Amino acid sequence: MNMSIAEPQPRATELPQRSVLIVVGSLEIGGTENHIAAVAPLLLRKGWKVSVYSLAGEGALGANLQRQNVRVISPPFAWRVLSQRRRTWLSYFRVLSAGVHLLWVAIRERPRIVHFFLPEAYLIGGLVAKAAKLPVRVMSRRSLNVYSQGRPLLRLLECRLHRSMAAILGNSRRVVRELEEIEKVPHPRLGLIYNGIDHTMFSPSGSRAQTRESLGLSTETLALITVGNLIPYKGHLDLIDALALAAHRMPHEWRLLVVGRDHGVQQALQQKAFDYGLQERISFLGQRTDVAALLAASDIGVLCSHQEGFSNAILESMAAGLPMIVTDVGGNAEAVTNGTCGLVVPAQSPADLAEAVCRMTADAALRARFGDAARARIKDQFSLSVCVTKYDLLYRTLLAGGSVQDVPGVRFADTCSPEGRALA
Q: Please, what are the domains in the chain?
């Protein structure tokens, strides 16, 4: 069943008041950042005046947003961003200067809606929005709240900020349930908007043979691909362990393509691959701008995270027609229907992951059936147009004095439907 949402047409007199400021930690390539880069221009086309405030500067995605007439704003000292491992006086100065600059922007421009993505943006932006008395404040949680474990002050501050939000959104049912059960967000403010993608950008293309040749893949080579920045919780070590367990049962010709920016763990991953004698089987490709072509050149998609909110990488792989192997965390099982368009396995279990890899690599018919079902599911359930329409309707409702519970398909009651419970 195709999802469709009626779109009320705005009156011309409404347009000057329809301004939204999106606040995010950075505009480097990543799931949340790519989501904003896709959504913001489409909101602009729906009549919103959209600006994106990036705490860490323009990043890899900022120039493209500006070419699409989305204004990108960043603090004057954004270029001095330091890694999380180097907390010095300069990093704290950067946080303070960003907060002051964002406050100046908020007071000067008075956006009707301010929408925060990711924890750093929420903490800095949420405090600024309260100080500036911006009328409508929205927070999107993009992952389970593992990041605040052992940091009670951070969790307390977030819970205090929750009280001043008009809407608090999760991007998977599991995220929403955590917000309800652990962080006690009241139902009238709580809702769900799934990520959406433009599936046409990931349709199989004629570039498969050319891309495979550039990667050194023969026509017989079975290519697995995992897309995600190299961060410990993404589970790359588990995947290498699983491949070592499965190697003797896999086809003679296979390769794993690892796509993503290194966050300090690539050397350890390469060493583990070398220890297993898999160094020729695993290609670390780094951050790439041709992900669609790499997906089209691959045969199986894998995401083995220990935690997730709702992964764009899974949606993109499914849109490319890849059968998926994913871990049962966050919204992974909400995207990948186990046994229909892929296999869902327990997290942090290389043995289960190895069994799934063996089953998938041994059965071409299964891969074809799962891949076709995956592509159809994206078109039907996770299109970018549905996602943007939900943001648009939510923003309009909040400006009119309504709540999340007035938006069908977003409100808490729909999030916790019997279908949603079945996916738990």
A: 12-196+383-422 (3.40.50.2000), 199-381 (3.40.50.2000)
